[in-house]
Specification:
Blueprint lengths: L1 E7 L6 E9 L2 E5 L9 H16 L2 H14 L4 E5 L1 E5 L2 E5 L5 E3 H8 L5 E5 L14 E5 L3 H6 L5 E5 L3 E3 L2 H9 L5
Parallel strand pairs: 3-4, 4-8, 8-9
Antiparallel strand pairs: 1-2, 2-3, 5-6, 6-7, 9-10, 10-11
Length: 179
């Protein structure tokens, strides 16, 4: 089921359209109609190449599940868009080629989901943050790394900041987290 969502960028801007599709238990927000899976093969590829890259790592599951239980959050969402560095801001564009802030998207959905995944290039490695939801994002240029099979997912945990690699293991041990 697809649904068009309208979000305001600012008071002067016209409305932008994000297309929402729920895939398994993940609300997927697409900035371009061309990126929405339109058949079973595309849907399977999207799950395997995008959603699974973020959620299949056991440490990510442990942190997301324990954070969700602690704060009463449910569900996951993913933003699928072309990302850009514009000055000191991480931006994405929609089908109309209008630019929108990735941080603005996070702010809109923060606390509505246990995890927010950003399938969106961040060439400038511009930091983003959340107050309630765990953020999962590529720690480099997502598209280039995915093509090379080199995808590394970083994690932003509200109250703790960015944790990656062995820091995630240490966090799990220190906080005695379990699935």
């Amino acid at each position: 089921m697809l649904e068009q969502l309208f979000t305001k960028k600012n008071k002067k801007d016209s409305r932008s359209v994000l297309i929402k599709s729920t895939i398994d238990d993940v609300d997927s927000f697409f900035a371009s109609r061309d990126d929405v899976p339109s058949n079973d093969k595309e849907l399977s590829d999207f799950k395997e190449n995008h959603i699974s890259k973020y959620l299949d790592h056991i440490n990510n599951k442990i942190i997301i599940n324990s954070h969700a239980m602690k704060y009463g959050l449910k569900g996951k969402a993913i933003l699928c868009a072309r990302g850009y560095e514009i000055g000191v801001s991480w931006m994405f564009d929609d089908d109309e080629r209008r630019l929108h802030s990735v941080q603005g998207w996070i702010n809109t959905h923060d606390g509505n989901y246990s995890a927010l995944m950003l399938y969106c290039s961040n060439p400038g490695r511009i930091p983003v943050e959340s107050k309630k939801s765990v953020l999962l994002l590529s720690n480099k240029d997502y598209n280039k790394n995915r093509e090379n099979g080199n995808m590394h997912v970083g994690l932003y945990l509200p109250g703790s900041g960015y944790i990656e690699g062995c820091e995630i293991d240490a966090y799990i041990i220190e906080h005695k987290l379990k699935i």
